[in-house]
Amino acid sequence: MLFAATTQRTIGFVILAIVFVGGILYIYFNIRGAKPEVGSEIELAPNRMPYLSDEELEGRHLDRTLAAGLVLLTVVSVSLPLYWLGEPGRHDGLVADTDRVFTDRGRELYTEGAKCVSCHGPDGTGGSVSKSLIGSDGNFIAQVSWKAPALNTVLSRFSEDEVLHVLNFGRNGVMPAWGGPGGGPLSEQELETAIFYLRSIQIDEATIRSEVSQGIRDGVAEKLIAESPADWAVAIRDAEAALAALDPENTDPDNVQAIADASGAVNAARSDAAASISAAVDQWLAAKDAVVATAEHMALENDATLAAQVSAAASETEKADAQAALSKAALELLSEPGKVPDQQIYLDYGKIIFTNQASGGTYSCARCHTSGWSYDATAPRTIAENGTDKPLLSEYKQGGGFFGPNLTNGTTLDQFETAAEHAAFVSEGQTIGKTYGKGGSGGNGQMPGFGPRTDDGVGVTYPGLLTPEQINAVVAFERNL
Ligand code: HEC
Ligand code: HEC
Asked: Which residues of 265-304 are buried (b: 16+ CB within 10 A; e: fewer)?
């Protein structure tokens, strides 16, 4: 862009110089070649060709010349403003054209050139990549499948500069470095086209809401299947235990058949229970809402000013402001251990959001803050592939730190004095070069923002990944780690 502007200017200056020098030369030669004084030609040129007479000149000929002049003047005076009026349209057309060309090139890069699609899935819907984990001593540890986040919401959580940072430098040795600064093969302009393509695949708010809610419902369902004393849950657990008791690596035909039968039984138990599961999930989420209502009730009892604000609120804005203040006060209570009856339900809800599996874990926090979560470290291995069937981890230490820092042992309580500040940070994320909290570094913007993000450069507001209500729950969970 800058280069184009300078080239244009240079050309402009050259033309100006040519016109200027040419003008001077013209005047110089004109004066030098000029005929002697006006009037003297009467004697000097007696053989001059006779020209039109005064009668003729002032008659039809003059009229025609004047009419032609008028027509030309009209053409110029009408077409100039018309051209000028059309200019913004032409400009927009050019921009739209450039957008289209860049987006097409970005799509080509995504699917062919750099094959982002092989890990991040078609249209950026998320995927995974097979990766050999190597220990610090250089020894092979395990072959794992590493979650590659969906990119169709990436501009909700990162600014374009922050995305460029990941593209340039890669991450965790699984996302390759693509840009020059990280030693990668792609040019700056190719990375720019990738960003144009990413802009074109971002999904809308309703889709995000439904993906996140479905992930939460699935998380609640798994929790209830593991813990509920209801008959349907017991039936599923029994079927799963029977399957787990069989040796998956024994290829004896009888065993293979037994495994097929047992896994069929698990599926049957789960589908038989589908309606019960869905009802139980609704009930559990309602119980979570009741805990929030209790906390709000307690907050009103604790704070007379807040209670007055809530009861005095009349207009829609006043009501919204009062509700926001109330949620904030309730969040402080829910974030402090053992403050609210049945608080654990709310904290479990926060944990389910923290570990949301939807879209390959894209909406989760665990993929960056929990070691091993991105590659399923608690899953059993096969002896054939890894020489052991022991999982890499017996259990996760949620929030124990991985790519993102450790959130346990009170470190986040030090960083953010109140749950409200903590929630504001999770909503906005970390911005390149900007410090946060008490001692948060001015890093590379790699902590995503989970609230909505406005990009003034592109003139777009991208929807948040989580609602304020969901962010609050995850914050309460973190403050109790
Ligand atoms: C070999 C597989 C692979 C390829 C190819 C690949 N990526 Fe990635 N990418 C990943 C993985 C895995 C992660 C997550 C890393 C982690 O867990 O820290 C990731 C992370 C990212 C992120 C960060 C998103 C977030 O929310 O954390 C962006 C942006 C990204 N990739 C864009 C791209 C683009 C654009 C291309 C193509 C130019 C590409 N990737 C090619 C595997 C890949
Ligand atoms: C793509 C990776 C990534 C994801 C996903 C992610 N974080 Fe982070 N987070 C980071 C990084 C990196 C930092 C450190 C930022 C820095 O120091 O510049 C961080 C910092 C934080 C901090 C500040 C910790 C401190 O003590 O300084 C909090 C709190 C936090 N993240 C919460 C969350 C929550 C809640 C979620 C999920 C809703 C989440 N993060 C998802 C990468 C991530």
From this structure: bbeebbeebeebbeebbeebbeebeebbebbbebbbeeee
* 3-state DSSP percent of the chain in helix, strand and coil, to 5: 60, 5, 30
pLDDT digits (tens, 9 = 90+) for 395-416: 999 999 999 999 998 889 999 9
Predicted pLDDT at 13: 81
- Count the domains in the chain: 2
Q: Is the pLDDT of residue 341 over 90?
A: yes
Higher pLDDT, 273 or 440: 273
Residue 13 counted as domain residue: no
**266 and 141 in a common domain:** no
Q: What is the DSSP letter of 444?
A: -
On the CB side of 257, CA atoms within 13 Å amount to 3
Task: Point out the ligand nearest to the CA of residue 150.
Answer: 1
Same domain, 183 and 249: no
Please give the residue range of the domain that contains residue 117. 104-201
pLDDT of 8 higher than 80: no
* Residue 132 resides in a domain: yes
Ligand 1 centroid from CA 191, angstroms: 13
Residue to substitute in 115, 119, 133 for testing ligand 1 pocket (most ligand atoms within 8 angstroms of CB) = 119
Phi, psi of 67 (to 5 degrees): -60, -45
Report whether residue 426 contacts ligand 2, using a CB cutoff of 6 Å. Answer: yes
One domain for residues 358 and 463? yes
What's residue 16's pLDDT? 83
Is the beta carbon of 327 within 6 A of some atom in ligand 2? no
Confidence band for 3, pLDDT divided at 50, 70 and 90 = very low
Shared domain check, 187 and 235: no
Atom 31 in ligand 2: residue holding the nearest Cα: 447
pLDDT at 1: 40
Substitution site in 365, 370, 406, 481 for ligand 2 pocket (most atoms within 8 Å of beta carbon):
365
CA 101, 107, 112, 115 dihedral sign is positive
Ligand nearest to the CA of 192: 1
pLDDT tens sequence across 220-248: 999 999 999 999 999 999 999 999 999 98
How far is ligand 2, taken at its centre, from the CA of residue 349, in Å? 19
**Would residue 328 count as lying in a domain?**
yes
Domain boundary among 201, 233, 251: 201
CA-closest residue to ligand 1 atom 32: 167
